[in-house]
Specification:
Length: 429
């Protein structure tokens, strides 16, 4: 989030938490009721129309007071499907407390008059409080996974448990991205504390002329600073733009699109940080002639593709499937006193993948073990095509949490048979 939004949440003051027992029974029926509705999927174009300067604040208010409870309830129902070893950890219970309290506070506006300016002001204050309360949700939920691993080390390594946790966290964090997008758009456009005067071409968090190359250069600059701080060395980076379908464009012309610049920066910073670290470590941090990292930005008919290429030794094929798993990291776990680490917590790539997918894009890696890696980001060029991808609670998602569905393998592959009872056939004996 930009500093403008951080200033907004300060008006909320201290954040209290209602004990979960006081809310659990009272809100169960409401959670069940709203979880039966599917979230409304918005495009970037829809976000712009909903929160433009010409749209009255009460229009956004009427939409959010109905939509936010639905999105909260959909993911809150999935809390109950978690394995008890994870669900009962102190950290997960804390996160559920936060969601119950926020859900309860939003419901208070269900019958409020959208024409009342005091109601609109109170609504903005409540949203600011929500953002502050949920600011550390990622770290707290990660703490719950670590607590489960410490208490049940054997169970945490089982494939069905890992699959269940991965499924939930992907949906939980994607739901969180969507909630914060809705809330921040409303606050940045309609809060009394909003301050967007110095940001032309912005509608809330959405940049109507997002300069992809400029953000890539800023991300590299900051990632390089970290790399030099930890390794005392960093490779250079070259940038190239291609716009083959615009005959009037020149190679030095910026490639712009409508996008959430903070999301794009998050993805680029994480990928560049990983590439810098890989190159330095592959060459033992020695020499001034480290191979360059190459960033290519290409504008196609309907997509903008960004390719980050490095010669950092690549990734073993057997490790590729783990890179988007939470808590996996090839770097050693940083110590608490080390400050901001270059790597080690394992959430960078999984969350970047979700940010790319959120508006119907994608992020993936192609690697040549022993040479290097190409990291690819593909984003929708047109705002009308950039639609939210958000989780929907239902019977299909309920089945995904079954701990039994992964126990029977129908392939002979070694990985798919991991953890399966392999009784040898006695046919012919």
């Amino acid at each position: 989030m930009r500093l403008t939004l951080r200033r907004l949440i300060k008006v909320a003051g201290s954040v209290s938490t209602i004990p979960r027992r006081a809310l659990g029974v009272q809100l169960t029926d409401e959670v069940d009721k709203f979880s039966k509705y599917s979230p409304t999927t918005l495009t970037l174009e829809s976000f712009i129309k909903l929160t433009t300067d010409k749209t009255p604040a009460n229009t956004s208010f009427k939409f959010l007071k109905q939509e936010l409870p639905v999105r909260f309830a959909n993911i809150m129902r999935e809390f109950r499907l978690l394995p008890p070893q994870l669900y009962n950890t102190p950290s997960v219970q804390t996160v559920e407390d936060w969601y119950e309290q926020s859900f309860s506070e939003i419901l208070q506006f269900n019958s409020s008059d959208p024409q009342d300016t005091k109601v609109l002001s109170k609504f903005s204050e409540t949203l600011s409080t929500l953002l502050m309360r949920h600011a550390s949700v990622v770290e707290t939920m990660a703490g719950g996974v670590l607590e489960m691993k410490e208490a049940h080390p054997g169970l945490a390594c089982e494939r069905p448990m890992q699959r269940c946790i991965q499924y939930f966290l992907d949906r939980f964090y994607m739901n969180r991205i969507g909630l914060r997008m809705l809330i921040s758009q409303h606050l940045l456009m309609f809060s009394e504390e909003n301050n967007l005067k110095g940001q032309p071409n912005h509608i809330g968090d959405i940049d109507l002329s997002c300069d992809v190359l400029a953000i890539a250069e800023e991300a590299y600059k900051n990632a390089r600073f970290l790399c030099e701080q930890f390794y005392l060395n960093a490779p250079e980076c070259s940038f190239d733009c291609r716009n083959p379908y615009d005959k009037q464009s020149r190679s030095e012309d910026p490639i712009t699109m409508t996008y959430v610049s903070s999301h794009l920066y998050h993805m680029l910073f994480e990928l560049l940080k990983n590439s810098l670290r890989a190159v330095v470590e592959h060459y033992d941090g020695k020499g001034d002639d480290l191979p360059k990292i190459n960033v290519l930005v290409c504008k196609g008919h309907s997509d903008v593709t960004i390719k980050i290429s490095d010669q950092g030794g690549g990734i073993r094929r057997s490790d590729l499937e783990n890179l988007f798993c939470y808590t996996y990291s090839s770097a050693p776990k940083p110590l608490a006193h080390e400050g901001t680490p270059l790597a080690g917590y394992g959430y960078g790539l999984p969350l970047s993948h979700l940010y790319a997918r959120y508006f119907n894009g994608d992020l993936w890696l192609n690697s040549v073990d022993g040479f290097g890696t190409d990291a690819m980001i593909c984003l929708k060029l047109h705002a009308c095509d950039a639609s939210e991808i958000i989780p929907v609670y239902g019977k299909t998602s309920q089945r995904k949490y079954s701990m039994e569905s992964d126990h029977v393998s129908d392939w002979s592959d070694r990985l798919s048979n991991r953890g399966v009872d392999r009784k040898r056939s006695t046919v012919g004996h």
